[in-house]
Amino acid sequence: MRFIYLLSFFLSLVFCMNCPAGNLSETGTSKIINVSIDKAQIPPDLSSNLMQRIGKKYSFQQINRNIHCLMDLGVFDNVIVTTKITNNNVDVSYSFIESPVISAWTNKIYSCSVMPDDLSLKSIVGKHFNNSDWFNDRIKIENFYRKHNYNSISVSSHVYKIEGQNKVVLITDVYPGKKQFVEDIKITGINDYEKEEIKAMIHCKPRNLWLFRKGKYSTVKLQKDEKNIRDFFVDSGFLDAEVEVSVTNSYSKERVIINVKVIKGPIYKLGTLIWNQQLLSSNDFANLENKLAFSENTPYSPDYPDIIRKKINAFCINITPQQPNLTIMPLINQESTPYNPIVDIIIILRKGYTVYGSSALKTSTFSYPASLAREYLNKF
Fold first, then answer.
1. Three-state secondary structure of the chain
2. What is the pTM of this model?
3. Domains of the chain, CATH where assigned
């Protein structure tokens, strides 16, 4: 094994010695004596910038930056840079593979009279083809139809290269489907009172012409709704809450049902504030404890460490001119069970500057007993 390691090290060393770019970038003493640019349409200021490197120190990082600038023009598929070394001087050469030009674009729309005229995608004809821009154009088409309530939109695209020419023809097939409306919102896993709260958080409402509700919905907004609903339960102490929002068809494809499935899991509760403080007098510390007092069975929220931190800092400003050295760390109490988790919070308050401790609580395991908290505090 040792022989293999030595052999691989030797080969890598030989490779680096024969790699001009790597060797030059390490020495930092080689100078560029010439810059040649292959025939290509690049802006005069960028061309001038490349030529101004003549006589200056060779920099591999600068070459990379130049390549990025050239690729950002959107007219090249690739930029190739070659270097020739002579007596510690460097001859840099740029060559280009030009992107094909879009000669035509056809947009076929099936079973729908709504046309995306406002997209002005026909303006892409005559420009250089770029996969990234072409992907964004397809997204524009999808967003247009989703805006008009065609949420089952499907877009397929094809790129055909014209033989013997550096040109392409683009074709998009658009299947908008039918307009869809929300018929109902079904929520499972929580009580009726919570269901009303969750329904108020969802961006859409079932269609009701008497109430002038069109029943429109957005799949993108539903993803945000899912996150907001989960955050709502997490902030209420259900740190392991799972929320899934899905859309299913009703008796017809034009009508859909928004399904919200909630698994709350156990509620995490605040346990004990474990202190190690060397800053305040006994009277001041007692006043601070009173300000941080909480009622029994208070749900634990991920924001609670920051709330405690702000209250302590605000209290200490009126007591001492020196900023406190403050560390706050939540951990699972040793009496916790998977069905009744309790969170203790370690608070270390000393003289000095504020140090932000980890306020992230690991909920996947219950291997953080209170003895660990005492062991941690004894180190200070």
1. CHHHHHHHHHHHHHHHHCCHHHHHHHHCCCEEEEEEECCCCCCHHHHHHHHCCCCCECCHHHHHHHHHHHHCCCCEEEEEEEEEEECCEEEEEEEEEECCEEEEEEEEECCCCCCCHHHCHHHHCCCECCHHHHHHHHHHHHHHHHHCCCCCCEEEEEEEECCCCCEEEEEEEEECCCCCEEEEEEEECCCHHHHHHHHHHCCCCCCEHHHCECCCCCHHHHHHHHHHHHHHHHHCCCCCCEEEEEEEECCCCCEEEEEEEEECCCCCEEEEEEEEECCCCHHHHHHHHHHCCCCCCCECCCCHHHHHHHHHHHHHHCCCCCCEEEEEEEEECCCCECCECEEEEEEEEEECCCCCCCCCCCCCCCCCCHHHHHHHHCCC
2. 0.61
3. 2-98 (3.10.20.310), 101-175 (3.10.20.310), 181-263 (3.10.20.310), 269-377 (no CATH)
